[in-house]
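Risk register update: the risk that structure generation would not scale has been downgraded. Supporting records follow, first protein first.
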Amino acid sequence: MCLALAFGLMAMPSAHAVYAIAQYGEPRYPQGFAHFDYVNPDAPKGGTLVLANPDRLTSFDKFNPFTLRGNPAPGLGMLFESLTTGSLDEVASAYGLLADDIRIAPDALSVTFHLNPKARFSNGDPVTAEDVKFSLDTLKSRQAAPSMQAYFSEITRAVVVDPATIRFEFRSNNRELPLIAGGMPVFSHKWGLRPDGGRIAFDQLAFEQPIGSGPYVIDRYSNGRTITYKLDPSYWGRDLPVRVGTNNFERITYKLYSDDVARLEAFKAGEYDALVEYVARNWVRRDVGKRFDSGELIKREFPQHNGTGMQGFVMNLRKPVFQDVRVRRALDLALDFQWLNRMLFYSQYRRIDSWFANTQLQAKGLPSPGELALLEPWRKSLDPAVFGPPPSQPVTPPPGSLRANLLKARALLADAGWTYRDGALRNAKGEPFTFEVLDDTSASAQWAPIMAQYTQALRRLGIQVNYRSVDFALYQKRLDAFDFDMTTIKFPDVQVPGAEQIDRFGSKAADEPGSGNLLGLKSPAVDAILKALTQAQTLQQLLDATHALDRLLMHGYYVVPQWYSATHRVAFKNTLAYPAKLPLYYGANDWIISTWWLKSQPRPQPGPQAAGH
C-alpha cells in the first residue's frame, strides 16, 4: 500500500465520538469489524514461547521502561495498554483499546476519550480517567526519560471530565497529537505506592511490579538474565476486535545471552523457539545444521514494507573533529559497501541512501515548490547543494574501486585543514586525526570484520581509529551521556514522521542527556522544518516537510549510512505457526509475540502401568 492511498484525502476533524481515527483520511477497518486481517481468529491458545535477547540488552535491572537510569527487562510493553492501538496494515490509524470512543474537537486543539467500562488493571481495579491523567503527568515530568518528556511535550495537560472521560489539550492544531495521546501507555496510580501510603519516586522504581492493563503479567525472573510473563487469566480485553487472534501464548520467556555467538549456538541447541537474524553471514553460513536439515528448525524470509530507518556510523558533532562537513563527507567516502556486500554479506543488502528510504517520504530529484518554500528562508546558511538533488552514496566500481574515493576524501580533508605529515593526518596545530568507535561487547563479533575493512581504509588516509567494545550497561550509559566519538546505531523506522523527529534532531534535545539526538545536531533550519512537519495539515505538507528534512540530513553527512534488507529473516521451531496473511508494516519480534501460536500437540497416550490411574 502506498502512503498516499493509506492516507487518502484530508478530512476535517470530527466533532462527534467515533470508534477510530486516522491522521489523514479514514481508518481501513469499518465500525463493527471482527478482527484485523493479518491475524488468525481461531489460533489455539496456550504453551510457552521462549525467546532470546531482542536487542543488544544482555541483562536487566528494572521493570520500569519509562525512565533513563538502568536497563529495563525485555517484553515490558506487554504489561501496558494504551487508549488506542494501530493496525499493522495502515500507517497512521488508531482504534479504541482502553477507550471505547474518541472525540476530536472541531478546532483540533483537544481530543476526548471515553474509557471502556470493562477495562481493568492487573490488580483488578478499573482503569479511570485519574489513572490516565496520572500517567501523562508522570511521563511529562523530569522523573521520566527525556525522550518521554519530548514526545508528549505538545500535550499541555489532561483534564478529568468524569471518572470515565479524559480530555487531552494541545499546544497547536497538529494532526498527529490525537494519535500520540491515544498511544500513551497507561498505568495505575498505585504503581509505586507503599503499604503505609508513601510513594516510591517514579525514577527510583526498580523491581516493583508494574500495574498495567495489558494481556500479560510478570510470572517470575532470575538474576537479571531471564524473565517469564504469563497471560493474565482475568485480562479484560481478550474479545476486543483489536485483540482477537493475538496474545496466543500462555507464557513468554526471555533468556538473555552474553553475545551474539552464544545466542546463536543456544538457538541451534534448541534452547529457545525463534530467532530474528540480522546478520547476513549467519543466515547463509551459520544458521545451518542437523536440526535445520531434519526440519525441526525452519528458515523463512518474510517480505515487509517498512521504511528502512537509518542505520549507520553515527558521528557525535559535539566532538570538534566531526564539526566540518568536509570531514564527515570524507569518512563517508572511505566505506566500501560494495566490497562488504560481496565478501561479507553474500549480496543480501542494499545501501541506505535516505533517512526515509523505501518509502514515499524519501527526497528525490530537485526540491518541489513546497520544499523550496520551507528551505528558501535559510538559503544563506545552507550548502547550495541542498537545493539540488540528494547526494548519492559512493560506489566502488572497477577499475578505480575504493582508491578513487579515497583520493576524493583526501582532497576534502586537505580543504578542511588536515594534511598528512609525520606519519599521521594532522591539523594546523599538529594534532593527529584520531577517534574511537564505541560498540557493545555482545555485537563486537559480528562487527569486527566490518570494522577491519573500514579502519584499514581510514588508516590509508592517515586517520587512527580505535575500536572499543564495552558491556551493554556501560555502552548505554555512555550513549545517554553523549560520551562517544562514533558508534553504530539503528534509528527506528517510521511510516509517518512526527514528534519523535524533534527528539531525534531538535536543538533542545541535543542538550538533554538520554535524548534521541545522539548526533548533537543544532540547526535552526532543521528546527523550522521539524515545526512544519509536526504541524502539517495535509499529506502534501507532510511530504514536503519530510523531503526537506531528508535533504538537510543527507547533505549534512552526519552519519555514514550502512545497509538494509527488504525482508525479515526468521528461523523458528516447526512447532510454531503464523497467520496466512502477512501484515504490511511490522517488526518481526513483535509480530511473533503478538500473532503466532503453538501448534496443537497430540496428548501422550498413557502406558500400561498408568492405565486406570
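Supporting record for the second protein:
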Amino acid sequence: MRNVADRTRAAIERRLAEDRLRDLNADLEHRVEERTRERDRVWRNSQDLLVVIDRRGMFLSVSPVAKKILGWSPDEMLGLTVFDFVHPDDLRSTGRALDKVKGDALPTYLNRYRRKDGTYRWMSWVAAPEDELIYAYGRDVTAEKENTEALHLAEEQLRQAQKMEAVGQLTGGVAHDFNNLLTVIRSSVDLLKRPNLTEERRLRYIEAISDTTTRASKLTGQLLAFARRQALKPEVFDVVRSVGTIRDMVGTLTGSRVRVETSVPDQPCYVDADPSQFDTALVNLSVNARDAMDGEGQLTIAVTTATSVPAMRSQPPIDGDFVVVALSDTGSGIAAADLERIFEPFFTTKGVGQGTGLGLSQVIGFVKQSGGEVTVESEVGRGTTFSLYLPRTSEPSDAVAHGTASGALVDGHGVRVLVVEDNEDVGSFATLSLQELGYDTLLAANAEEALGFLASEPDRFDVVFSDVVMPGMNGIELGQEIRRRHPRLPVFLTSGYSHVLAQNGTFGFELLQKPYSVEDLSRVLRKAVGWRQATLAPA
C-alpha cells in the first residue's frame, strides 16, 4: 500500500509540474505575442522615423512613417545608404557621426534628408549600436528650425532698427547742438558787419565767436571719445596728483553748497592715459553729480587700486592691475530702467537745454579706449557711484613734465614752414596766419608735392606742418618718409579725426588737434624750431 501511495503521489506531482510548465509556456507565448504587437504598433504608429542600419549605413529596416516625412516608402529606402539621402553639405559630418555611433551611443545629431520631391527636411537623430547593427530614431524638426531662424532674423531686424534709431538720435542731437552754435556765430558775424560799431561791441561779438568755436570743438571731442575714435595723447601720470589738482576746479563747478571730499592713498598711482581726457571725464561726472544733488550734498572722489573689474552689463569679471577712481554723490540716484541706457549718446534725464547727453558717452569712450572699464552703482533716493578702472602702470623712469609752453603769439622771425594741407581754405588760412606772424610759408596740396619741394630744396625749410587725412599718402606716411630722408627736419601733424591715429596713435609725431587757434599753431612751431636748433647746435 505504501508503494502504491508513493507512485500515486509522484504521478500527481509530475502531472502538476507538467501543467505548470504548460501554463508557463502559454503565458510566455502570450507575453511575446503582446510585446511583438506593442513593438509593431510603435513601429507602425510612431511619428518619429525608426530605422535599422548596418555599419556601412545601409538601411535594413525602415518604419512606415518614412512615407509621411520623406515621401519615400520603406521598400524604396531598403538597400540604399544614409548617404543617398543626406544633403551634400552634411555628408562629411554625417560620416563622422556614423563612425562615432559604431562604438558608442550617439547624442542628438542634426542633418538634412532629401525628400522624394527634392526638398530637404531637418532631422534630429539619436542612435545606438547593438549586435553589429545600429538602431536610430529620427525626428522631423524642420518647423522648429525654421521658427528659430525666423526668430533670429526678427532679432537681427530689431537690432538694425535700434541702430538706425540710435543713428537718428545721434544725428538729430548733433544737428540741434551745432545749429545752436552756428546761430551764435552767424549772428555775431552779421553784427560785426554793421557800420559804426563801437570797439566794446566788436570785441564782445568776437569773443562770442571764439567761445562758441571752443564749445563746438569740445562737442566734436565728446563725439569722438564716445565712438572711441579720438586720437588720444597717452602719457604716464599720477592719478593721485591729478585728482588733487582738479579738486579745486570741481569745487568751483559744483558750487559752495556741495561739499567735495577726496580720499587718496599716500603713494602715487600711475596710469598710461590721456591726462586731459581724464580731467574731462572727472569734470563730466562731477557736473552730473551736482545736478543729481540739485546743487546741494556731498561728492566724494576716492582713489584706490584693484586686481579685477567686477562683473557688469552681462560681462564677466576682468583680472588685472587697475587704478580705481570712484565718484560718489548723495543725489537722487538712477532708476534701474535707465541704468542700461545712461552711456548712450544724447540720452539724458535732465530737462530740455540742461544737458547734451554726451558727458557719460565721453567718459566710457575715454576709459574703454584707454583699456579700462566703467562700473556704476546706484540707489534711487540715496545716490550714485561711478568707478573708473584704468590699467595701472609702473612709475616713469624719467619723470619729465611734458607740455607746450603757453604764452602770446610768437614772432616767426622768418622761420620757413612747409604747410601740407589738401583743403584749400584751411591751407590758405594757415599760411596767411603764419605770414602775419612773420613766418616764411609754402603750401603743398598733398604729400607727393611736399616731398617734391623737399627733394628740390632740402635745406629750404625749418619745419613741416602737415594734415593727417589726405588723398594718397597720408600725413603719418609723409612724416615717416621725411624722417627717413631728412631725419633732422621736425614734422608736426594736425587732424580733426583719423582712424589711423585712433587705432595706432601718433607714431611719435606731435599732434595739434583741429580746430586750432593761431596761438596754438604759433606755440607748436616755436617748440619745433627750438627742437631743430637744439639738434643742429654743435656738441
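Residues 416-536 form a domain with the Rossmann fold fold (CATH 3.40.50.2300). On this basis the risk owner (M.S.) recommends closing the item.
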